[in-house]
Amino acid sequence: MNRFVGGLLILLVSHLCHATPISPQLITTADTHHPVVGQQVVLSYELVVDGFFNGPTRFDLASLSGARLAKRSDFAVNGSIRKQGRSLATQRWEVSLYPEKTGLLDIPAMMFNIEYMNNEGKAVKQRLVSDDIQFFVYLPDELQGVNSYIVSPDVKVSDRWTGQKNQYEKGDVLVRQIQIEASDVQSIQIPRFIPLPVDGIKIIPQEAQLSDTNDRGQQRASMTQRLSYVITQAGNYRIGGESLYWWNLEQGEQLSVFPTEEINVNGLSPRSVYVLIIVVFLLLLLSLGGRYVANRPPSLKAKLTCALRSGDLKKFVSLLYQKTDAEQGSQRGCRQLKLTESKRVIADLFDFLYARPRSIQGSALSQGRIKEGNNQSTKKLTKELGQLIK
Hints:
Layout: H1 2-19, E1 25-30, E2 41-49, E3 51-53, E4 58-59, E5 67-71, E6 77-83, E7 86-99, E8 103-107, E9 111-118, E10 123-129, E11 133-137, E12 149-151, E13 155-162, E14 173-183, E15 201-205, E16 209-215, E17 218-231, E18 235-240, E19 243-248, E20 252-257, E21 260-265, H2 270-295, H3 300-310, H4 313-328, H5 330-337, H6 341-354, H7 375-389
Parallel strand pairs: 12-19
Antiparallel strand pairs: 1-2, 2-7, 3-9, 4-9, 5-7, 6-7, 8-11, 9-10, 13-14, 14-17, 15-17, 16-17, 18-21, 19-20
C-alpha cells in the first residue's frame, strides 16, 4: 500500500514539473569589478532554456567611449544544468572588456535574440536582456607616467638580428625581428614597437603582423615586427636597448629590456669630420695670427721703449716729439713738454744732445740728473723718461 502511494506521488510531482515550464534566463557575470586600465575583464553571458537551442543566437556589442568590447570567440560554449529536477540547456558567450581610462565604467544591458525548441516540441524565438554591470577602473602608482604597457600575467620578448658581421661599410643593412607574446590580451592591446633612433642609421619598419589564439578559453596574442637598419654614415653605433613595461596582477610592474648591438662602420664619422675642420681652422688662425704679429711694424710706444732701454737718447727725443705731434699737434705738444719738471728735463736733454746755444745752467743736467758716470742720476732720469711714454 505504501509503495503504491509513493508511486502515485512521484507521478504527480513529475506531471506538475512538466506541466510548469521554466522560463528562459540570462545570467550575467564578470571575473572582476576593479580592473587596471588595459586589463582584460571577461564578461560571461549564460543563456538557459527549458529545451534545446535549434537556431543561431544573435547579439550586438555596445559601443563605449572609455572601453572596448570584443568577442572572445565566434562560437558559444554549450552545456546543461539541472534545475527543479530537470535538465536545462545552456549557452555561454564570453566577451572581453578592455577599459581605457580610470573612473567609473558602466556596461549597458545587452539584448540576445535566441531560438530554441521547448519540451512540448514547439519552436520559440525570444529576446533576453542582460543586466548592466559597473566597474571601477584604476591605474597603479607604478604606471603613472608610463605611456604604453601591457597588462598580462605572462609576457615573452624575442629579438633576432640577421646580417651581422665584424666590420661594416656604408650601405650595409641589418634586419631585426621583434616578437612580443602575451596572454589574456588581444594583439591590438600590444603597444606599437618604436625603435630608438640612431643618427647615421636609417630605420625602416615593416607592417606589424598580429596574431590571436584562443585555446579552451586561454587567450594569447603576439605581435611580430621586422625592421631594416640601413647604415648611412661611418662611426661607432649602439642600436637596440628599448624598454617594454608590463603589469602583472600578482607581482606588479615588470620591465623587459631588449638587447643592444654594437656596430663599427669604417670611415670618418660626421663628428670626426667636424672636429678635424675645427682643428684645421684653429691651426690656420694661429698661423695667420703669428704672421701678422711678426710682420706688423712696431708701434711708436714700442719704439720709444726700445730706444730708452738701449740708451739711444737722440732717437728717444725724436720719437717722443713724434708721439706728441701725433696726439695734440706739434706746437701744443712742445708747449706741454715744458709744463712739468720732467718735461723740462726733455727740453734740457734736447739742448744737451743737439748743442743748442742755450745756457743750461741751473737745468736738470747741471744739477746732475744726467751726468756721465752717475748711475743713480741716470736711473732716476730713465724712470722719469719712462713715465712720458705712457
